[in-house]
């Protein structure tokens, strides 16, 4: 979350053999626990995929421990060991600050950031990258998990996207040129839909799966920038004490370095 997933999503979507639905984050593995329900939801989500296309989605909730546990195991129960996982990471403090501003604008966190990091542990937890990705490595093996550094990716998105496409087993030369100025969800262009009814509509499955796909991502982005009011800038300055606390938490995270072989091999 707040680590460049939308930009990466749009970049690799341009490859002709990649199918990603217009609903970027369906949260299928969070909303359903039974393999049959998961398969049914993905079948609906990927119904428009063409023969030969690789299918995927980009729900950031799948790496939001401890709010959602057991997600990697659910994925393995449906996909087996063939699933490829792409995990994009950002400077952990920068991600935390962006996350705080996002949730503050939507009313899901309150107060000063130096207080919020204690009252809303997820602000730090989602930046505990090794801990977040560990269940996926355990279930699918290191070879099936690609960790992408946002700063490195942003320096040369064409090269970064090509590496992701190659990881998926596809020909990166088929990837069209990428406009480096087209960055999704820029912090300096953050927008918020204030009408609750409209917000509920655009986040509904009906809109996300039936209506949204009728319009290109570029068109939706132009409309968003033109029509929605900008989010008011807020001070999100971390004190030295808060920075020390954050770094202590990140440095002390414990990751079980057990066998990372796929579950089927254990």
From TrEMBL:
Keyword Glycoprotein present in the record's keywords: the answer is yes
**InterPro entries recorded:** NST/OST, P-loop_NTPase, Sulfotransferase_dom
Record key words, sorted: Glycoprotein, Transferase
Q: Which Pfam families match?
A: Sulfotransfer_1 (PF00685)
Q: What range(s) does the Sulfotransferase domain occupy? A: 78-173
> What SUPFAM superfamilies does the record tag this protein with?
P-loop containing nucleoside triphosphate hydrolases
Q: Does the keyword tRNA-binding apply?
A: no
- Which GO molecular function, any one, fits this protein according to its record? sulfotransferase activity
Q: What is this protein called?
A: Sulfotransferase domain-containing protein
């Amino acid at each position: 979350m707040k680590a460049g997933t939308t930009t990466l999503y749009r970049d690799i979507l341009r490859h002709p053999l990649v199918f990603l639905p217009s609903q970027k984050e369906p949260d299928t593995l969070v909303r359903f626990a039974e393999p049959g329900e998961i398969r049914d939801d993905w079948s609906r989500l990927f119904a428009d995929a063409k023969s030969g296309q690789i299918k995927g989605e980009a729900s950031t909730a799948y790496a939001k421990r401890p709010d959602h546990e057991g997600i990697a195991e659910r994925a393995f129960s449906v996909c087996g060991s063939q699933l490829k996982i792409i995990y994009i990471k950002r400077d952990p403090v920068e991600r935390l600050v962006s996350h705080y501003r996002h949730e503050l604008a939507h009313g899901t966190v309150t107060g000063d950031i130096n207080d919020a990091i204690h009252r809303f542990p997820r602000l730090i937890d989602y930046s505990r990258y090794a801990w977040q990705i560990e269940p996926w490595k355990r279930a699918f093996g290191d070879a099936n998990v690609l960790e992408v550094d946002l700063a490195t990716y942003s320096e040369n998105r064409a090269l970064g996207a090509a590496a992701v496409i190659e990881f998926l087993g596809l020909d990166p030369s088929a990837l069209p040129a990428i406009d480096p100025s087209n960055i999704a969800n820029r912090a300096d262009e953050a927008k918020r839909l204030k009408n609750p009814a409209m917000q509920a509509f655009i986040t509904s499955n009906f809109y996300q799966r039936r209506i949204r796909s009728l319009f290109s991502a570029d068109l939706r982005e132009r409309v968003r920038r033109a029509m929605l009011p900008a989010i008011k800038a807020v001070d999100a300055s971390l004190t030295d004490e808060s920075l020390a606390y954050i770094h202590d938490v990140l440095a002390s995270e414990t990751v079980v370095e057990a066998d990372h072989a796929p579950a089927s091999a254990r």
